[in-house]
Amino acid sequence: MENINYTPKDILQKEFKQKMRGYDPNDVDSFLDDIIKDYETFNKELQSLSDENERLKVQVDELNKQLAVSGSQPMSSTTGTAPTRTAPSQPMSSATNMDILKRLSNLERRVFGSQLDNNTNDSHRL
Prior knowledge:
By secondary structure, the protein is mainly α. 64% of the residues lie in helices and 0% in strands. The chain is built from four helices and no strands. The longest helix has 46 residues, at 25-70.
């Protein structure tokens, strides 16, 4: 907004000197009126987009807080993407997979307990 030279009011109040072979003042006024309308529309749109941008920033911050509470790594509010992870993330991923497999095995034991205990093949157990 710092680079704007004229407000709609400045355009409306601008007086031009009349010369002998100048432009028709009615045409100039009509054209400036259209410019003022466009200018006001642009200002409203800019304000609307600024408000939406602020609302979305607040929403991103709120979601990052929720992710932080749930134990996930928060997204960067400046880039909108999750920070890149380095090589140590791979062992954590395999540990998570191992946990999932253990949970699945425990669930199978509870659901199919008697059937699994009677079966002599224990290759599916961890």
